Fold this protein.
Amino acid sequence: MIERIAIYPGTFDPITNGHIDIISRAARLVDRLVIGVAVNIGKGPIFTLEEREELVRAEVAPLAAKAGIAIEVRPFSTLLIDFAREVGARMIVRGLRAVSDFDYEFQMTGMNYRLDPEIETVFLMATERHQFISSRFVKDIATFGGDISSFVPSLANEKTKAKMKGNA
């Protein structure tokens, strides 16, 4: 039997409870899950690539143990399809929060399918309690000293607050 490998790509700046929700649910569907941390300088990340990798790795370690599968965290700066091929993935997992996400994801899925029809995109809807969370909103709230603890895991909360204060 062929190992079912999926990738879940994102910027994860910072990783949110919504990301954790999608990762934990995706982990139940595959034999190995690769979290692809995108370089994505265009989004102006507050955390360096290395910091984002470290945060994601720390936050997903308990999920891997609970799911009983390998969850890898790897950076990438290539086309998503090329990254999928590189890790042997046959599935791209994408999270959807709202209809506005679908418009963008629909276009991306079509382009990726054209590039490699052997790699499927699977959408997981964010659970109701996480549908409104986005890294961008988390950063906005943190910039003004707001409480982000209900939107991000504890380590991400600590690191984001420190980064916004200039202490990280």
